[in-house]
Design goal:
The protein is an all-alpha fold. It contains 16 helices and no strands.
Length: about 290
């Protein structure tokens, strides 16, 4: 009886704590929503925003009415979709042979991959390589720099190791070659870990500010994180959005933040069921 009462008390306290923690975590997002739906004058007053003041969609009409935000949206969507697809292809095709016990020089290749998790070439050598490849000031620079991640390769490799080898042996007896086995058998079985990696990669590419700021100089190639930064620091103004008096208002900044977050928030629920399962399964059999 005492044990049951203690469990109920613990569950009640734990639920209250989690609700408070969730409210604290959600408040910054709710505050931005409230500011974005408030008038310019009320947004500039600042303070605690629990609800929109002088409810209006003017900030969203202003942001969505500019051509520059749509160009940035198109660039970010292209980088995220194409970059994620190519990164999954390169990651899985790298991990598949490394998961084989019979691969020659397997330990050497594994050490080389792990080495990249500890050391990298640095900004200047990487920039020089990208310039030699003629990728500076192109969208493909952001994609090429994120094609392979050693951590993702290890996760994928451990997941493939957990698959029964008898499946491949049976497919080979039926006349399937390694390429067909990889695309027709292995990849379909790797949906959980592929969905997990896709979410990680897509979020990283969508929020990729630093590389876009370094390698993209043409304003027509600006991605959403760079555009958001320009609006926040007040450097957008007449040359990009026009009406300089409105570009730095708090309501417009909040609306831009929410417009930037919306695609990730919309995609995440569809991949959430694979997220934990893929991460756990990929950690089996190191």
């Amino acid at each position: 009886m005492i044990h049951s009462f203690s469990s109920k008390v613990f569950n009640c306290v734990n639920n209250v704590f989690l609700l408070l923690l969730s409210a604290i975590m959600m408040f910054p997002l709710w505050r931005e929503i409230s500011i974005s739906l408030s008038s310019k004058e009320e947004a500039l007053r600042g303070g605690l925003f629990l609800w929109p003041r002088e409810f209006t969609f003017s900030a969203y009409r202003y942001i969505l009415g500019t051509d520059y935000i749509w160009a940035a949206y198109g660039n970010s969507i292209f980088v995220t979709v194409v970059g994620t697809a190519l990164a999954l292809l390169f990651t899985s095709s790298t991990a598949y042979p490394l998961a084989k016990r019979t691969l020659p020089w397997k330990s050497v290749f594994s050490v080389i991959i792990v080495f990249t998790m500890i050391f990298n070439g640095g900004l200047i050598p990487t920039y020089l390589v990208m310039r030699q490849l003629h990728l500076i000031n192109t969208i493909w620079a952001l994609i090429a720099l994120n094609l392979i991640s050693a951590f993702n390769v290890i996760i994928m490799m451990n997941f493939i190791r957990a698959l029964p080898e008898e499946l491949e042996e049976s497919a080979m007896m039926d006349g399937a070659n390694p390429i067909r086995i990889f695309f027709s058998l292995i990849l379909p079985l790797c949906k959980p870990v592929l969905a997990t990696l896709a979410l990680w990669i897509a979020v990283g590419l969508w929020n990729n500010f630093y590389q876009a700021f370094i390698y993209l100089n043409d304003k027509s190639l600006t991605t959403l994180p760079v555009l958001l930064r320009l609006i926040i620091v007040g450097q957008q103004q007449e040359s990009q959005l026009g009406q300089a008096s409105d570009t730095a208002t708090e309501s417009v900044i909040a609306a831009t933040i929410l417009v930037t977050l919306l695609p990730i928030l919309a995609v995440y629920p569809f991949l959430q069921k694979y997220f934990i399962k893929g991460a756990l399964l990929g950690s089996v059999k190191a």
